[in-house]
Amino acid sequence: MDAIRSKFEVLSAKDDGSLSEGIQILRRSIAEQISKPQYKKVTHDLTTKTWWLVGVGTILIFCMSLLTTKIYNQSKEIEELELAGWKYRALRATLPANNANVIWLERNVWAGNKDGIRHCLQFVVNFEDSVRRRYELSQRAARNDSAAKMLIRESEEIRKRLK
């Protein structure tokens, strides 16, 4: 822009007939400069403020990831406690209040003892398996009993025929 301003000053100082020619030349040079892409040289100095911002950003990202893992682990522990609580309630409903297992569960599960919770879950799994086996055995015994009664009736009928 300074070059264009200086050319205008030179042309106005001459004040001869070449003013219109100069204006045309200036118009062309302005059009050329406008049509060219404008490049600006950008330099950025990594100052202490920038490094401070990078450090703070890194620390924040680290803290966010740490908090995310802590929250995930805590939610897993809460789910385990809820599961242990429901199973404890089921056991409490089936066992008498003065049972040693119920007293042990009360000491370990509600205190938040991880080993106690693990033992509680194993105890509940074993209890559920024993209840399932007991039911299967009672069903099998009922089938065997009905089959035995049928065989006894058949044997009595055969005895009656032989007499």
Brief rundown of the structure:
With 163 residues, the chain is mostly helical.
Characterize the structure shown:
The protein is mainly α and 163 residues long. The chain has five helices and no strands. The chain has helices at 2-14, 19-35, 48-94, 100-108, 114-162. Helix 1 (2-14) runs antiparallel to helix 2. The termini are far apart.
Which overall shape is indicated by the principal axes computed on the Cα atoms?
A: elongated
Share of β-strand residues = under 5%
Rounded to an integer in angstroms, the radius of gyration calculated over CA atoms is: 47 Å
Counting helices, strands and paired strands, the structural category is mainly alpha
Number of strands: 0
- The number of helical segments is 5
- Helix-strand sequence: HHHHH
Helical coverage, percent range: over 70%
- Parts with pLDDT < 50 across at least 5 consecutive residues: none
Calculate the mean pLDDT score and round it.
79
Distance between the termini: 136 Å
Instruction: Please outline the major beta sheet.
Output: none
